[in-house]
Write a structure and sequence with these properties.
mainly alpha, 8 helices, 0% strand
Length: 180
């Protein structure tokens, strides 16, 4: 079975309705003010913001992982983990705005993507806390686990992007066809 089929099966799992419903409730509150949803989706610039904004946390965390393997770069790695944690809410808000317009099967897949990212943020926050208390080895372990989780979540998010036209790109955009 290929990855595409595996991810698509998530969309058929009704057990994912509760996390999707929680996200929906959050979305109703966060995206309620007039113009917020459109701005977070990138409609004013006619380009989705989420794929651009995820680069900062993921890039910072990836660079921290590289620096963790280089002696004498501990402080720089710690700073990059902090930068990623500071940038993650903006990426999450834009993702929530895009997610808010998905159909039910895609919303289930998006809920798994979001949950994976929440777990990754928790791992990176734990990593930073451990590093600050002198437990660098455990902190590095958590950040490497975080990289694995955020990579898997990113693959799921990339799948959604490949089979769904983001709201900001709908006007005149050609839908990417799923393989198969």
């Amino acid at each position: 079975m290929d990855i595409f089929t595996t991810v698509e099966r998530l969309g058929r799992r009704s057990a994912l309705n509760p996390p999707a419903d929680v996200l929906s409730g959050v979305g109703r509150v966060v995206l309620r003010p007039r113009g917020v949803r459109a701005a977070l989706q990138g409609r004013p610039v006619r380009h989705p913001l989420h794929p651009m904004l995820v680069q900062l946390p993921v890039g910072a965390w990836t660079c921290a992982g590289v620096l963790d393997a280089v002696p004498g770069t501990e402080r720089a790695a710690d700073i990059l983990i902090g930068v990623g944690l500071l940038a993650a809410p903006a990426a999450a808000a834009t993702g929530l705005a895009d997610w808010s317009e998905l159909d039910r099967p895609r919303a289930r897949i998006g809920a798994v993507h979001a949950l994976g990212n929440v777990v990754a943020v928790g791992l990176f926050a734990g990593s930073l806390a451990l590093r600050r208390t002198g437990r660098r080895g455990a902190g590095r372990l958590l950040s490497y686990l975080g990289l694995g989780v955020v990579s898997a979540a990113g693959m799921i998010g990339g799948h959604l992007n490949a089979v769904t036209v983001p709201p900001a790109a709908r006007d005149g955009a050609a839908r990417t066809q799923a393989p198969g």
